[in-house]
């Protein structure tokens, strides 16, 4: 599973120990590939010839973050230092239907942001590892690696499009919802 982790640069003075702890937990977790500005490997996602110049260019930095979010199966943010840019990046991830874990020492943002892709937690040094592992387990369970194609009649397709639109979903989401409900 591919994970992208980021945190605000403005919080480094106060929260670098926490950023390092999160990265250490992620690095020690088997079966994931981690890309992160905290790890220093996030620019590798771009075809950049001069990484030192690229790091100084904010547009290249932003593009690497954006592509890292697209690349990832799930995204983890440490937001003890609240940051407008990270809020924007979380929105990008959610719009791309990526599961997002928003970690903070101060507040559980899951009480304020309601999306099936958004997961928040207030953590301590002792609770961090179980929170991350629970999130990763959920993402593994909900990852959709299998593709299945089938044929529909014109009337079935029209009905599927109408029903899914009424529920505010695309056709694939609607069919998965029906299957999950039927399994219960």
Comma- or semicolon-separated keywords:
5 strands, alpha/beta, 184 residues, 7 helices, 48% helix, 5-stranded parallel beta sheet
Summary, kept brief:
By secondary structure, the chain is α/β, with parallel strands linked by helices.
Characterization of this structure:
By secondary structure, this protein is α/β, with parallel strands linked by helices. 48% of the residues lie in helices and 13% in strands. The protein has seven helices and five strands, in the order βαβααβαββααα. It has helices at residues 12-27, 51-56, 58-71, 84-95, 128-142, 154-166, 171-183; strands spanning 2-6, 33-35, 74-78, 99-104, 118-122. It has a five-stranded parallel sheet, sandwiched between helices. β3 (74-78), α4 and β4 (99-104) form a beta-alpha-beta unit. α6 (154-166) crosses α7 (171-183). The longest helix is centred in the first third of the chain and has 16 residues, at 12-27. The radius of gyration is 19 Å and the shape is globular. The mean pLDDT is 90.
């Amino acid at each position: 599973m591919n994970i992208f982790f980021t945190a605000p640069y403005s919080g480094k003075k106060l929260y670098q120990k926490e950023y390092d702890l999160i990265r250490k937990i992620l690095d020690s977790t088997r079966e994931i590939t981690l890309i992160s500005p905290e790890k220093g490997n996030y620019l590798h996602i771009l075809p950049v010839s001069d990484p030192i110049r690229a790091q100084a260019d904010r547009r290249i930095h932003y593009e690497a973050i954006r592509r890292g979010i697209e690349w990832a199966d799930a995204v983890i943010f440490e937001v003890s230092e609240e940051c407008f840019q990270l809020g924007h990046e979380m929105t990008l991830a959610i719009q791309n239907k990526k599961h997002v874990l928003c970690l903070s020492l101060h507040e559980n943002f899951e009480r304020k942001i309601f999306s099936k892709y958004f997961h928040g937690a207030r953590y301590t040094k002792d609770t961090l590892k179980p929170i991350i592992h629970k999130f990763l387990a959920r993402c593994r369970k909900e990852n959709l690696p299998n593709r299945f194609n089938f044929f529909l009649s014109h009337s079935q397709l029209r009905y599927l499009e109408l029903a899914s639109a009424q529920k505010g979903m695309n056709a694939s989401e609607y069919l998965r919802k029906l299957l999950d409900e039927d399994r219960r």
